[in-house]
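Hi R.,

Here's the chain you asked about this morning:
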Amino acid sequence: MLLDIVVFFVGAACLASAALPPYIKVCTSSEKNLTNCIIDSVNLLRPKLKEGISELNVPPIEPLLLDEVKLRSGPSNAKINANITNIKVWGPSGFEILELKPNLPKAKFAFKVTIPALHFEGDYDIDMKILVLEYKGVGPITGNFTNYNFDCILKGKKVQKDGQEYLKFDKMRLKLHIGHSRISLGNLFHGDPVIGRATNDVINDNTDLFINEIKPVLENSLAEKFTDIANKITLKFTYKELFP
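And here is the predicted structure, written out as tokens:
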């Protein structure tokens, strides 16, 4: 997502080279309106992020694969114990930049982004009790998030490699804000449509129980994955190449 944006700004968009591919717009450190230049560069690059850029070892961001999510929370009358695996997320490439504050001397970038809609699919193994509803079983899980926003801070430092200086990022700091969510568990009560629908209605009346547990796991997983992507790119170019 936006990590890829900042990465390409730092690792490629600022790289003044005649060999740059057409999907990268050059932004120099002396640019009069650096923020707007970066945003323009991002908008040009966005279609490539969805499909991935093999020449820079950047994987596709759709579907975005997430690590296992474990839910262990709630009082006795609203208990949820669940493992969600094989999570795939669609929609990250539809991001829109709300605000971007680059600080080149400190190699620090603060940004706010919105994603209008996200859809995810995965598998669940759950043991839950919400009010009078009790259920234990396995099956597919799907969900939709809308008005998905996040704040991020990405900061780098110089490292030595083969006698040259490179830019390496620390783990990014990321804070998610989810507006509306809808979750659906499949194969409930052996596929009974009436009880299954009623169960999903109860679950969605209590989505905060899911979201409050999922959010920190998502924040950590996304931060780790996007920091890894950033370093794959920036460690390909020396610091002098990035900031001529």
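One quick note: The CA atoms of residues 121 and 142 lie 4 Å apart.

Cheers,
M.
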